[in-house]
Design goal:
The chain is mainly alpha-helical. It is 69% helix and 0% strand. The protein has a domain of 201 residues: MetI-like (MetI-like fold, Orthogonal Bundle).
Length: 310
Amino acid sequence: MGKAKQKNRRRHFNWQVFLMAMAGVVYLFIFNYIPMFGIAIAFKDLDYSMNIMKDLMEKPWVGLDNFVKFVTDAQFETVMTNTLLLGILQLVITFPIPILFALLLNELRSSKLRKVIQTTTYFPYFISWVVFAGIVQMFVSSDGGFINEVLMAFKLIDKPVSFLSQPGYFYPIAIIASVLKETGWGSVVYVSAIAGVDQEIYEAAHIDGANRFQTAFYVTLPCIMPTVMVMLLLAISGILNSGFDRVYMLQNPLNLARSEVLDTYVYKVGIASRRYSYTTAVGLFRSVVAVVLLGTSNFIAKKKTGNGIF
């Protein structure tokens, strides 16, 4: 009997699926695990190095010196404040919108109309931030920009406003741009989760007299809450990830007071100024914060709701 079971297991071994899975494992190992050896750069003085691999082996360890330099840097407060504020605004505003959008899509009776709306809202996600930021700049431009024209037509302003030249407008512009670009694609996960809800639950709700609004918020939303919780925990862990493409393409010397975040700071200091050890330390600092946020938020979520990532 035992030999028969072993033969049956061998017969059902799907080597095609195994190879596909192993391709993913190999990819993660090469591009995610092997580069982790570079963390050692954060604990050595390789700034302005011309041969990083050689200096990595020969130069002495400097401990936490690079982390201390970052914390005591004159730009630390500005960079961290901008990163946190933009991350919190993104979490509070841009996270729930795809959920609401998925709920609204689910209420559409016409499948053709639903597909048209989904395709239309997915499309901006596939446009690079270089192009999309250019479109945003055209809309908010003080020289014939659509926003200025509308505001002036309604007598809300007397003369055109250069929105991207004023730091106070940077957060709203960045958040609205993210909502327009990523809401459609961000709703895919929730639309898929809604599709998996048992239809008998909806039938029971209708029998009990629930209207469409009540069905959406008292049946659909609770059923997809495990998915929402996982996405929320991932969003919390990435609160220091402002999105380099978006910020850098909307950034200019006049709005640096609000637009200089960790992503752009690391790029400018690390690549342009060749301070490799310093910016590796900054990146490691952000990763440690992300792990702490993920672990803490997951612990709280498990305690309060019973749902979590692990």
